[in-house]
């Protein structure tokens, strides 16, 4: 399988998963954890029109913001690389994100701020995994950058510039995957018997373990002369 296809498939799964988990946390607590612009903007308005609920919302948004930043910081400290490198510990990171989501699920009823913090930490870790691949920054926890890239590349194509189709397809498909993740999470929340945050957590753990298995067992078996690298 070509590297581009692996990147696109992996990016779609991550975008779907982030949207799925974020929607679950949002429906449970009213706070987003994968993107913070809307919550911070709303909080700015609420601070002018004060109400008794403002302090509680302030704590939640502040916790989400700080934790998202911490996740990005930890990713940069331990695993970030300026370009895509399959030797990087992506498998362990995805498992870790899944563990954070799973713990958050159990904390939501009794400690929602802690649950928001753990979920935002996981999303910050994931978003910081983004790397610049052949001119495209792969962000998987929010849509602003993806839609911007989609618009820019499509506009250049309409201008008859030589823009490869895959550069248009990548942000478009990732955007669709993110949207689908939110929709599916809402369906599970309103019509199912399970919390989307728990489902996301377990799915992340399984995906991280699957990536590790493929990298350490399957790929070396198919190509014995190639070292699998650290996962």
The class by helix and strand makeup works out as mainly alpha
Computed over alpha carbons, the radius of gyration is 19 Å
Q: Tell me, what's the shape?
A: globular
Largest sheet: 2 strands, antiparallel
Mean pLDDT: 83
Segments where pLDDT lies below 50 for 5+ residues?
Answer: 227-231
- In CATH, the topology is named Growth Hormone, Chain: A
How many independent structural domains? 1
Structure description:
With 231 residues, the chain is mainly alpha-helical. The protein has a single domain (3-222), classed as Growth Hormone, Chain: A (Up-down Bundle), CATH 1.20.1250. The chain contains 8 helices and 2 strands. It has helices spanning 3-29, 37-48, 54-78, 90-107, 112-128, 144-158, 165-191, 196-222, and strands at 132-133, 136-137. It has a two-stranded antiparallel sheet with strand order 1-2. A hairpin with a 2-residue loop joins strand 1 (132-133) and strand 2. The radius of gyration is 19 Å and the shape is globular.
Key features of this structure:
231 residues; mainly alpha; Growth Hormone, Chain: A; two-stranded antiparallel sheet; 2 strands; 73% helix
Secondary-structure map:
Elements: H1 3-29, H2 37-48, H3 54-78, H4 90-107, H5 112-128, E1 132-133, E2 136-137, H6 144-158, H7 165-191, H8 196-222
Helix pairs in contact: 1-5, 1-7, 1-8, 2-3, 3-5, 4-5, 4-8, 6-7
């Amino acid at each position: 399988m070509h590297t581009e296809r692996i990147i696109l498939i992996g990016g779609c799964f991550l975008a779907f998963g982030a949207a799925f988990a974020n929607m679950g946390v949002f429906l449970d607590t009213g706070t987003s954890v994968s993107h913070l612009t809307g919550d911070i903007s709303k909080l700015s308005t609420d601070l002018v029109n004060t109400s008794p609920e403002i302090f509680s919302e302030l704590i939640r948004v502040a916790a989400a913001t700080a934790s998202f930043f911490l996740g990005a910081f930890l990713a940069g400290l331990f695993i970030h690389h300026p370009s895509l490198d399959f030797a990087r510990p992506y498998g362990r990171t995805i498992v870790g994100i899944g563990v954070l989501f799973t713990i958050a699920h159990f904390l939501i009823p009794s400690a929602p701020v802690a649950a928001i913090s753990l979920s935002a930490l996981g999303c910050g870790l994931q978003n910081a995994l983004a790397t610049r691949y052949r001119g495209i920054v792969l962000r998987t926890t929010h849509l602003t950058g993806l839609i911007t890239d989609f618009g820019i590349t499509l506009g250049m194509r309409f201008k008859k510039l030589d823009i490869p189709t895959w550069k248009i397809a990548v942000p478009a498909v990732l955007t669709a995957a993110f949207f689908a993740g939110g929709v599916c999470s809402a369906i599970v929340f309103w019509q199912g018997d399970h919390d989307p945050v728990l489902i996301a957590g377990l799915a992340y753990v399984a995906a991280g373990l699957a990536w590790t298995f493929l990298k350490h067992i399957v790929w070396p078996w198919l190509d014995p002369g190639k070292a699998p690298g650290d996962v």
